[in-house]
Write a structure and sequence with these properties.
Helix content: 40-55%
Shape: globular
Largest sheet: 6 strands, antiparallel
Number of helices: 9
CATH superfamily of the largest domain: GAF domain
Number of strands: 9
CATH architecture of the largest domain: 2-Layer Sandwich
Order of helices and strands: HEHHEEHHEEEHHHEEEH
CATH class of the largest domain: Alpha Beta
Number of domains: 2
Mean pLDDT: 83
């Protein structure tokens, strides 16, 4: 989603800030944009947008399709793949996720938290399993998902309070929208070391999730999403999810070392809290 502001009304931005605003104009809902659309989304004159887009295009950060619209380029994907929270975590998790998938033949998901959203780093999608709304690189609200509940339960208190103070979006009749109930659920997640999201995102999917630790810090979450056929389905996959999460934690702690940002940025000087 674009967070650009009109230059005449908003604070003066550096050249780097304008380049970032161009990239921020792209989203899952708007993967391809014309030059005019980029200028409007970022609040810069068309001539400035032309210069910025040209720089990004020459570098490989943007690509142009057959219709003349711009899309995020492969260079950014290559750069993003180097992020320790994606690369090291994915390498540590893949063997365990593969084993879990082979045992359950259900959707297996790996995710991290970015401020008040969950970002899916990897997933195994079973052909005959329940449909899920997630994709690798996709974002979702923390509260309704299994991995999101785990990550929110172990997030800093300031992050939890911001989520609890904001309106909670309802996706189904089962979605938790009462902050007091959500607070109780988060306490239960911390107590039990697992989370169950029961049909909160879709009417037929239940997610069972467990935390992944780097030493004493929860840095990610692993889940299996099953069809909501009752408690038996949850009981069947819970031991496997917990065991796999512990295995990933062990490998991650042994291999990640100082490369992993155990205190990833939330709100900072350049990213004000909403």
């Amino acid at each position: 989603m674009s967070r650009g502001v009109d230059e005449a009304r908003g604070p003066r931005r550096t050249s780097g800030g304008k380049l970032l605003a161009v990239l921020d104009a792209f989203s899952r809902e708007r993967p391809a944009l014309t030059l005019s659309e980029i200028a409007r989304a970022t609040g810069v004159p068309l001539s400035t947008a032309h210069r910025l887009v040209g720089e990004l295009h020459r570098w490989g950060g943007l690509e142009r399709d057959g219709d003349g619209r711009f899309r995020v380029g492969l260079r950014l994907w290559e750069l993003g793949a180097l992020a320790p929270r994606g690369l090291g975590l994915r390498e540590a998790a893949l063997p365990f996720m593969e084993d879990l998938y082979e045992v359950t033949h259900q959707n297996v998901q790996l995710a991290v938290r970015d401020d008040v959203e969950v970002v899916f780093v990897e997933r195994f999608a079973a052909r005959d399993a329940v449909t899920v709304l997630t994709r690798v690189g996709g974002r979702f609200a923390l509260p309704p998902t299994g991995v999101g509940l785990v990550l929110l339960a172990h997030a800093p208190a300031e992050v939890q309070e911001r989520v609890l103070a904001a309106p909670l979006t309802r996706y189904t009749a089962h979605t938790i929208t009462d902050p007091r109930q959500l607070r109780r659920v988060l306490a239960e997640v911390r107590r039990t070391g697992q989370a169950v999201s029961d049909r909160q995102v879709t009417d037929d999917a239940v997610s069972v999730a467990a935390p992944i630790h780097l030493r004493d810090t929860v840095v990610a979450a692993l889940s299996v999403v099953v069809r909501g056929d009752g408690p038996a389905a949850v009981r069947a996959v819970t031991p496997g999810v917990r065991t796999a999460a512990r295995g990933i934690s062990r490998v991650l702690t042994q291999s990640a070392g100082a490369a992993w940002p155990v205190d990833p940025p939330d709100a900072g000087p350049d990213r004000p809290a909403p």
